[in-house]
Amino acid sequence: MNRQFSMLILFLGISVNAIAQQKSIEQRVDSLLKLMTLQEKIGQLNQYSGRQVTGPESKVKTDLRSDIKNGWVGSMLNVKGVKDTREIQELAMESRLKIPLLFSLDVIHGYQTTFPIPLAEAASWDLEAIRLSAHIAAKESAAAGIHWTFAPMVDISRDPRWGRVMEGAGEDTYLGSLIASARVKGFQGEKLGNTDAVMACAKHFAAYGASIAGRDYNAVDLSDHQLWETYLPPFKAAVDAGVATFMNSFNTLNGIPATGNQYLQRDILKGKWNYKGFVVSDWGSIGEMVTWGYARDNAEAAEKAINAGSDMDMESRAYKNYLHRLIKENKVSESVVDDAVRRILYKKFELGLFDNPYKFSDLKREAKVLSDVSHKNIARDVAKKSIVLLKNESALLPLAKGKTKLALIGPLVKSKRDHKGSWIVNTDTVQVVSLYEGISNKLGKKAEIKYAQGCSITGNSQEGFEEAVNYAKQSDVVIMALGESWDMSGEAKSKTNIHLNGEQEALFNAVKATGKPVVVILMAGRPLIFNDIAAKADAILYAWWLGDEAGNAIADVLFGDYNPSGKLPVTFPRHEGQIPLSYNYYNTGRPIKNPKYITYKSAYIDSPNTPAFAFGHGLSFTNFEYKDLVLSKDKLNSGESVKVEFTLVNNGKYAGEEVVQLYLKDEVASVVRPMKELKDFTKVYLQSGESKKINFVINKEKLSFYNNQLEWGAEPGDFLVMIGTASDDIKLQSRFTLLEGNVSDR
Ligand code: GLC
């Protein structure tokens, strides 16, 4: 009794302390707000990019610095490093009320240490590895004077024409929600204000991944049902994880720009979800509402944005230039501005910046943290877990480390910059391990390696083919490195053609014609189409953009020091014409039953409906057997759960990890339901010969969906339970019946 009682007292003490702390911050915010002029309040809503605020003298620099000294700026982006952030913070300390600046930056996959791109890390399905990656990025950023990262990007996307698919967690809402939560917790750590944590930012709110035609800055037209069912849950997961800020997005949603969208920012985010953080616009997106034709001029754009809940203005200067007048004209209430200012000041207090504006600007800590070599080991670990083994005919991989004549061929064999991908902070490439270096590091003097570039990534010359083919003929095994250059995916990198560029696939065919075994390693920021390689290569690794430790991580897999465990977080189409394509498709009224008979079926006359590689696909060097599926009951009353148990056996010769996936199909419902939806997964490590009972629990939440009235709940009927190693490779299945439904307010 004593122990429980003391635990209760401790818990109450902590809660009371937290509430007291929150109270005191709210009181401090209110006291400060009372002292602020309207101009100073508007200043807090103004964010400038600081590319010119340090460095050579210029008029821009002078103007920026004088606005900061006048207290007309609340935050800077793109100022980094202790030296520069301290210098600029000192300018802010010259202002009347000495309100500190927030320093923000796009730390998307690493600051000093470049980690794999987010889509690659999503392929690890390893939430702890993903959290840790974000934590190291936060630790390095915070040591370099950064308070706030514009990450995680949590946009669900089923369109690989969209270059920003590289920044997210892929196509699935369930996986994307868990990853959103892991990344927020990684960035924000134990507590905001700690010097190994930064504010996270859930972006782009909302549904940017559904841009028409896969083009950036374009419109999004979605049913409310799809918005709530598919695109909002990762944002809600970020809110539940305590995300400090949101960023809205360039797209319109059903005709209203997200930046000026009351439904999104006020009704849903700050209303239904009761969100207390603040929303920053995307770069210039307030002013872009004029270009959209949603506002006559920047004054009206400012009015619509602030009234719709967009608190901070990134780089359009609409708030700084027009809010004062809009308030005088009673088009914007000062209370709306006060609410936005409160939200921003609250975070500055929470970070401890009023107590010490230079808390994050410590030169010694910066030097120590940014040179911590343990970060590379963490980067290498998550990189190898992100590699997906797509194909491995006759168990060609892993390769023997002994005396092997290797031909390394392709435009990405010696590349360094490409492994960092886009959205990077540290542009130095000296520390990046190329594939060539990774293999040399692994094999040392034992290996006989011949290298030929063969062709460039985009050029149409085949001049290098002869040398490549000759080296292939002299080798035991050929390893080819093909794919995208770092600037082919990312923002403003939409493509109509996601096939391999240039003569890369022709180079593969020329090399394969030698009859030698060929391992193809594909490196890219998005799913690519490579049908010849998929058909003819002996082994294929999808290595995305793996960051600084790419070469070492790929070599770990190639030579068996790590048994690959990655699973695709996104579907790979056979052709662009299939897009949008995802695993959770609907049955339609005329599904293909037999691929030979497609007349009057929901089919293409020139391609199968199936993808080249499915969501959840990823092979191992070992073999996993699934058996003995048992459900705890086959009939459920409302609110009850059903336990799912099966046995996983590693009956291959290598130890390894398997991501076992649980899918459900709601057989009949008031709205049509997908053929399958991912509802749970776990990553299991088994020694060769080892077996383990795996358990899942299917609760009411996993049976629920939004019905046509957007009510959240489960409906009575039959459910198909599927356990698989991929969405298109179901190993076990069973059924249960929900006897009565339930509708809850969510
Ligand atoms: C960009 C991006 C956004 C980024 C911001 C600041 O245009 O859309 O994701 O955080 O501007 O760089």
UniProtKB/TrEMBL annotation:
Top EC category: hydrolase
SUPFAM superfamilies named among the record's database cross-references: (Trans)glycosidases (SSF51445), Beta-D-glucan exohydrolase, C-terminal domain (SSF52279)
Transmembrane segments: none
Signal peptide: 1-20
A Pfam family that the UniProt record links to this protein: Fn3-like
EC number: 3.2.1.21
Segments forming domain Fibronectin type III-like: 658-727
Catalyzed reaction equations: Hydrolysis of terminal, non-reducing beta-D-glucosyl residues with release of beta-D-glucose
Keywords from the named record: Glycosidase, Hydrolase, Signal
Molecular function via GO: beta-glucosidase activity
Family: Belongs to the glycosyl hydrolase 3 family.
Protein name in the entry: beta-glucosidase
Organism name: Pseudopedobacter beijingensis
Source species taxonomy: Bacteria, Pseudomonadati, Bacteroidota, Sphingobacteriia, Sphingobacteriales
